[in-house]
Amino acid sequence: MSRIFQIRELPTIIAGPCSAESLEQMRSVVTDLSNDSRISMIRCGVWKPRTRPGGFEGMGELALQWIKELKETFGNRFLFCCEVARTEHIELCQKYGIDAVWLGSRTTVNPFLVGELAEALKGSGLSVMVKNPITPDIELWVGALERLQRVGIVDLAAVHRGFTTYNNFGYRNNPLWELPIELKRRMPDVPLICDPSHIGGRRDLVAQLSQTALDMHFDGLMIECHPQPDKAVTDSGQQVVPSELKTILDNLKVRQRSETAPGDLIRMRQQLDIIDAQILKLLSQRMNISKDIGVIKSRHNMPLFQPDRWDQVLRQQIAAGKELGLDENFVKEVTEKIHGESLRQQENS
Ligand code: PEP
Ligand code: MN
After folding, report:
1. Pocket test for ligand 1, best of 52, 83, 236, 238 (most atoms within 8 A of CB)
2. Which atom of ligand 1 is nearest to the CA of 162?
3. What is the pLDDT of residues 160-177, one digit of tens each?
4. Residues 19/236, Cβ–Cβ less than 8 Å
């Protein structure tokens, strides 16, 4: 049997609404998307995990009936997928002929539940995607994929939808690109799909995040698409209409795999780029604090440069660097540079 998820020359594009809301909504979006041959799979939420009680929790079995009906027209054109979080969901997906399911972020964090779902998925014929856990813990992500592999499921993919962190840096979910890249390094045969909609949480971020993912050699994209996003019952700010999705896909630069350097080299360079970006972000945070310190010093008439404090910082850094295997002169030079810039910022504050 041919696999749904495999590493192909062109990225796999999955699109569809956050939630299946009505047959009309689903028919409208599926019809519009069917004109775009790049899209091969329709996504929709049938059961919605909500952080707080009382929200829309999905249309459940009724939505599966709509999908079954749509499959009569579009069954040869599209595959259909939805999230499952309970063993009963899996049985219902089989009953209604769903092609693929995904374990959501709130499921991937729970090894007992993943184990139970893996048992239920065994022999079901369903292809399975695993979204990253909400927490930035790669072991949970790898562990969930391994639990599925152990019961014999080979048609698997991983979905990167970002993480909840102390500071999400303006994203709905912090992308922490180093994690999916590390996942790809550890499990190179499992296709990696990016979900820019849930990372950005804003429709204007979808294009840029999708490009970043493709530049990092992700194998596909899952993008939320709704006929009338402003009226969507869930995630209305991040969904795009089908025509916007077409523009996003038209503008994406898809690089041929064959044109690129060996996979390991690419991944390691990506890791370096991510670390460099983090260094800059941290330096900027450090300079902002320095400026605030500058204000306090001038308010209290304190000298900007305090030799004792500088001596302590330098010794501390050299000792910490040694522990990390870094050359003493190198650490000294970097620390002097940072300190010098910090004083310059304080002078101007
Ligand atoms: C979804 O795909 O609609 C969803 C609920 O995503 P996540 O689990 O990534 O929040
Ligand atoms: Mn959503």
Report:
1. 83
2. 9
3. 999 999 989 899 999 999
4. no
The conformation of residue 11, written as its DSSP 8-state character, comes to P
Residue 253: count other Cβ atoms within 10 Å of its Cβ.
Answer: 7
**CATH (residue range 263-347):** 1.20.59.10
CA angle at 19 for the pair 15 and 24, rounded to the nearest 5°: 85
With pLDDT > 90 as the criterion, what percentage of the chain qualifies? Answer: 86
Of the candidates 191, 186, 165, which has an alpha carbon nearest to the alpha carbon of residue 278? Answer: 165
Whole-angstrom distance, CA of residue 237 vs CA of residue 74: 28
Mean pLDDT of the chain: 95
Q: Does 107 sit in the ligand 1 pocket, CB within 6 Å?
A: no
Phi, psi of 22 (to 5 degrees): -155, 165
Number of Cβ within 10 Å of residue 256's Cβ equals 8
For residue 330, the surrounding DSSP H or E stretch is helix 328-347
Domain 12-251 has CATH 3.40.50.11500: no
- The pairing of strands 12-16 and 100-103 is unpaired
| Domain limits, the chain | 12-251, 263-347
Distance in angstroms (rounded) separating the CA atoms of residues 290 and 283:
10
Which helix (DSSP H) or strand (DSSP E) does residue 103 occupy? strand 100-103
160 lines ligand 1 (CB under 6 A): no
- Tell me how far apart the alpha carbons of residues 213 and 219 are, in angstroms, rounded to a whole number: 9
Token pair recorded at residue 115? 């184990």
198 lines ligand 1 (CB under 6 A): yes
